[in-house]
């Protein structure tokens, strides 16, 4: 009777050991799977990064655009922060044009446009300086009436 009992215990212990081993193997398998998944994840991340950079050196289209934007923002900071709405080129040009048209009559619109273009080239954001340009060496670009009017204004 006792032998049978102890035998049963031995059997049970063997089974337990086997079950433990199987469990460990299964866990090991899971570990392997996890490693594989991680490897895949890393690979995908690397691939994504490479795609973003594009080619061997330098950046891809997106990366270059982002870099350009960053540079612009940095330059803006040097000049004193992000441009306000009125400093944006379109708004600024409207302001410059209005300023120019107060100096010249609308019938000289072509001259105004060239003046505006010149002003914009020389002074990126100071619209007030258009007056100094308008009364300055740009006089040669005006039609005779405009020149007469300006010279009388300038005196």
UniProtKB/TrEMBL annotation:
Residue spans of biased composition, Basic residues class: 40-54
Organism: Ophiophagus hannah
Residue segments, region Disordered: 1-107
Name of the protein in its database record: Pxr1
Biased composition (Basic and acidic residues): 1-39, 55-68, 89-101
